[in-house]
Every structure is written in structure tokens, then in C-alpha cells.
Amino acid sequence: MRVQKGKIVIFSLLVIAILATVALTGQQVAKNITLGLDLQGGFEVLYQAKPENGQKITPKVLNDTAQALNRRIDVLGVTEPQISVEGTDRIRVQLAGVKNQDKAREVLGKPAKLTFRTPDGKDVLLDGKDLKEGAAKQDIGDRGQPIVTVEFKNADKFAKTTKKYLGKPMPIYLDDQEISAPVINSVISNGEAMIEGGFTTEEAKEFAELLNAGSLPVDLKEIHSFAVDSALGKESLMKSMEAGLYGILIIFIFMIGFYRMPGLVAVVTLVSYLYLVLLTFSLLQVTLTLPGIAALILGVGMAVDANIIMYERIKEEIRYGKSIPSALRSGSRRSFLTIFDANITTIIAAAVLFYFGTSSVRGFSVSLITGIVISFFTAVALSRILMTLLVRSNMLRRPGWFGVKESEIGEL
Fold first, then answer.
1. In contact, 151 and 211? CB cutoff 8 Å
2. Residue 147: which H helix or E strand, with range?
3. What are phi and psi of 100, to 5 degrees?
4. Shortest CA distance to 342 belongs to which of 308, 305, 314, 295?
5. Hey, which residues does 50 pair with through a beta bridge?
6. In terms of one coarse class, where is the protein primarily found (predicted)?
7. What is the distance between the alpha carbons of residues 374 and 306, in angstroms, rounded to a whole number?
């Protein structure tokens, strides 16, 4: 049989395209991946929601509180925060890259309940819920002092309140602390008010942002918190990458040494697998953590396992005396269900971990599921395409290309 050079050319172009894409864009893809708290350093705190005045802690209340915390994190300038509801009354917040932990703790845990009260400060006339969303702004007053302006949803309600207490002070409280007590000099009919609290420019800005973020639906009690230094995070990342590189290199050597040409094809598909997983993490903005790296390396093992199952089936068919093209077709078909079942059961286990696990366990399960789906594509689809091109080119005529000795043929 003549060697079909066209198939070899297509095979070579595919391999070159894969390796060139990885070499040219791999570093940029890796840089775009968001690193988690344990790899970048930062701050983590676990809160317990405390009901007040007979309030019930429901899943909706917890979700609303998590959303309020997320809005507050914008004030800190943190990208990709991890906020997760745990159990029936707990919320975990992970902020990678946070440098000022005291400020983060203050902004997150502060109830920030704004109230406008009667002159004696006892009764509440209006509160933060009466404010228009996003209407609080930092501004400059008539005397050049920093102020905060707010706008009310119901201008008529505010107008009636200012009319009733005309000429009297209306103390403004943030939580239980009085921050200002402006005197109502005229009826305010447009629903806009000015808060003077002896602010600095920065304090006025933070106060406005905190009001826009909204008050927390419940009180939060800090159960525990800890910080990870950025240097420790970088060291963890380097050690993990080094260990993973050594492990993957050993796998490459084993596959080529034991399976010969199919092993070389497996190396190409594993490189594709690693690249596609990182690309998926980058596009979906997945936060990569140490458990995520562990799941990524475990996914390499799953991808290798799929290749091994298929190649062993092909070797068995060759030992039965079948031709190499026939062995490829039969071995691929026989191995498919085994690979599919193994992947499905692992995905189910990972889904259970995600449903019942905490944040770090969930990160592991997400990375594992992503890796399994991509490994199924690369180890089954891509590997079969490359192997079929090689076999149909008639270049692989001898069983030795598949790691099968001539003396083994017909023994089964």
C-alpha cells in the first residue's frame, strides 16, 4: 500500500496549528486568569446572619444580604469577589488582592442604616429605603466644605416632613451615631437634601458610596476571618505549578515510551487539553485556586486514562490479528462507552461536591467538571481524528508503532 502524503500533510498541519496556537497565545491566556485568595493573597471573612425584632433568616434574606455585600465590594475596588451562602445563616466573603483589611472589614460589616429622626432623636421619620437608588453623591457645599447630597423617592412625603418640622433640626443618624443635625429652614419640595457631617472629601465619597450600596437586610456577626499574604500566595502558586509541570512531564514520557506513536498523539491532545481548560477559565472568568489547580492536574490524569483505555483496546484488537485500520475502528468503538461512563460518574460526584461543599470545595468541583468535559473532547474526538489520519495515510503499517510485538499477535 502506498503512503498517502495528503493525510500526513493534514495531520502535520493540525499538530503544527495546535502547538503554534499554544505557544503564541498560551502565556497571555494564563495571565488573564483571575487568581484566588490562596494564590494572590487577600482577605476572607465568614459572617453569621443575626435576626432582629422577630425577623426570620430565609434563603431570600441571605441572598439579598449577599447582593448588598457585593455592591459594597465595589467601593473597595476588588475584582472577582467570591461571595457564597453557606448553610442556613452564614455568608462567606473572599476578597483576593485586598491590601487594607481593616477598611474591608469595616465596609462589609457596617449595617449603614441611614435614618432621619425627630428633633429629639427618638423617632424615625424617614430611612435609607426612602432614598432613590444610586442618588447619593459627594459634592461641595456653599462654604466649600465636602457634603453628601441625597434624593428621596417620594418628594411629597419629604416635603410634608420638612413642613411639619420647619425651623427645627432633623438629626441624621448612620446606624446609632448622629452624623448631622441640619435645621430645616424651608420646605423642601423637590425631594433633594444636603447632608453636612464635617466630612473630609474622601469620607464624603465613601459615605455616598456606602449609601448607594444599600443597608444590609440583617445584622452580620463575624465568626472568623484570616488574611493571606501576597508573598505566600505567589509561593503557593509557584510550588503548585512546579509540581504540576513535573507530573505532566512524567506522563508525557510514559505515554510516548509505552504507546509509541499513539503516545505521541496523546501528548498533543494533552497539550490541547491544558490550553483549552485555561482558555475556558479565562473566558468564563473562573477564579483559579489551589484546589482548582489540583483539579486541573487530576483532569490531566482523566484525559490520560481515556487515551490509555482507547489505546489498550486497539492493542487488543491488533493482538487478535486484525489489521491496523480495523483495530482502530473496533478499539475506538469498544472504548467509547467505558470512557463515557467513567466521565459521567466523575461529573456526578463533582456535582454533589459543588452542591454540598463550601467555597474551596466548589472551586475544586467546577475546575474538575470543566476539565472532564474538555478532556472528553480532546482525548476522544481529537485523538481519534489524529489517529485516523495517521492510519489512513498507511504510514503506520507495523504493530510496533502501537507498542505491540509481532510475537504477541494471535496469542489472545
1. no
2. strand 146-151
3. -95, 90
4. 305
5. 219
6. membrane
7. 12
Reference 149, options 111, 76, 199, 113; nearest CA is: 199
C-alpha cell, 331? 478499539
pLDDT at 175: 66
- Alpha carbons within 13 A on the beta-carbon side of 192: 8
**DSSP character string of 214-247:** ---SSEEEEEEEEEE-HHHHHHHHHHHHHHHHHH
Q: How far is CA 318 from CA 92, 135, 330, 403, 412, in A?
A: 56, 75, 10, 10, 10
Cell numbers placing 122: 427618638
In Å, what is the CA distance from 326 to each residue of 210, 261, 264, 314?
69, 17, 21, 9
- Residue holding cell 465568626? 223
Look up cell 492510519; give the residue.
391
**Cα 346 from chain centroid?**
21
Distance CA 333, CA 394 (A): 21
Nearest to 306 by CA among 399, 374, 256, 358: 374
C-alpha cell read off for 99: 491590601
The percent of residues above 70 in pLDDT, for the chain, comes to: 88
d(CA 184, CA 111): 27
Domains and CATH numbers, the chain: 5-37+230-408 (1.20.1640.10), 42-111+216-228 (3.30.70.3400), 114-203 (3.30.1360.200)
Read off the C-alpha cell for 187.
420646605
Give the span between the Cα atoms of 349 and 344, in whole angstroms.
9
Determine the Cα–Cα distance for residues 269 and 380; give it in Å rounded to an integer. 9
Q: What are phi and psi of 78, to 5 degrees?
A: -95, 135
Query: What is the maximal distance between C-alpha atoms in the chain?
Result: 107
Q: Residue 204 to residues 147, 153, 184, 196: CA-CA distances in angstroms?
A: 6, 21, 21, 9
Model confidence over 148-189: pLDDT tens digits?
Answer: 888 888 888 888 888 888 888 888 787 677 877 878 888 888
Q: Is 41 helix (H, G, I), strand (E, B) or coil?
A: coil
Nine cell digits for residue 260: 509509541
| Inter-residue contact 176 to 157 (CB < 8 Å) | no
- Sign of the Cα pseudo-torsion (36, 37, 42, 45, in order): positive
